[in-house]
């Protein structure tokens, strides 16, 4: 089975179904069953890269931490509360959306949608013109910069116990 390594707390947000899209700088042509692997990097290191400390806590940080606490509980930032270095869930990867400004073919509707995703398919494809619009929570949990990609997961299954595994960059093969 293909697997993808995702840092915490995003791996757990996906595993519990609170994050439906994983945003990446690269697209994939793989669709099907996929294992969600929680990377080994500690939450402190990940968050210090994402939110460098200058002066106090920013509004973006407060929104992010508030949304994560709502989804994972108050102790999500305790290193023992989340699994690391393990496969924690399986899902089905069903689509890879290209993130764009003002998505869609309907110009009037597109004007009211600042950011969204379009399927990266030729114009003659039956789903050409399909769009997604991320929720505010999805916007907090991903990098929705136009030019990136949003991988869509469905049928999430949280494993009863995390299965230790060594992760890798990109998609990789995992056998339970």
Please give a structural write-up.
The protein is α+β, with helices and mostly antiparallel strands and 176 residues long. It has one domain (2-173): Hypothetical protein (Archaeosine Trna-guanine Transglycosylase, Chain: A, domain 4), CATH 2.30.130. It is 22% helix and 33% strand. The chain contains five helices and eight strands; from the N terminus they run βαββααβαββαββ. Strands 1, 2, 3, 4, 5, 6, 7 and 8 form an eight-stranded mixed beta sheet that branches. It starts with a strand and ends with a strand.
Question: Helices, strands, pairings?
Answer:
Layout: E1 2-6, H1 10-15, E2 21-24, E3 32-38, H2 43-50, H3 59-72, E4 86-101, H4 107-111, E5 115-119, E6 131-132, H5 136-141, E7 149-164, E8 171-173
Parallel strand pairs: 1-3
Antiparallel strand pairs: 1-8, 2-7, 3-4, 4-5, 4-7, 5-6
């Amino acid at each position: 089975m293909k697997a993808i390594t995702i840092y915490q707390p995003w791996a757990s947000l996906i595993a519990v179904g609170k994050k439906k899209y994983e945003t990446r700088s690269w697209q994939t042509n793989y669709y099907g069953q996929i294992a969600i692997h929680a990377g080994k990097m500690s939450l402190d290191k990940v968050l210090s890269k994402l939110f460098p400390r200058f002066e106090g806590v920013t509004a973006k940080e407060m929104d992010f931490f508030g949304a994560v606490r709502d989804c994972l509980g108050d102790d999500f930032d305790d290193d023992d509360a989340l699994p690391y270095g393990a496969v924690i869930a399986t899902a089905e990867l069903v689509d890879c959306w290209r993130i764009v400004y003002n998505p869609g073919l309907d110009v009037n509707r597109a004007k009211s949608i600042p950011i969204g995703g379009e399927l990266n398919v030729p114009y003659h494809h039956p789903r050409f013109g399909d769009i997604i619009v991320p929720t505010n929570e999805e916007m907090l949990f991903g990098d929705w910069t136009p030019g990136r990609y949003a991988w869509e997961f469905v049928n999430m299954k949280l494993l009863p116990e995390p299965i230790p595994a060594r992760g890798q960059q990109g998609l990789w093969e995992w056998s339970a």
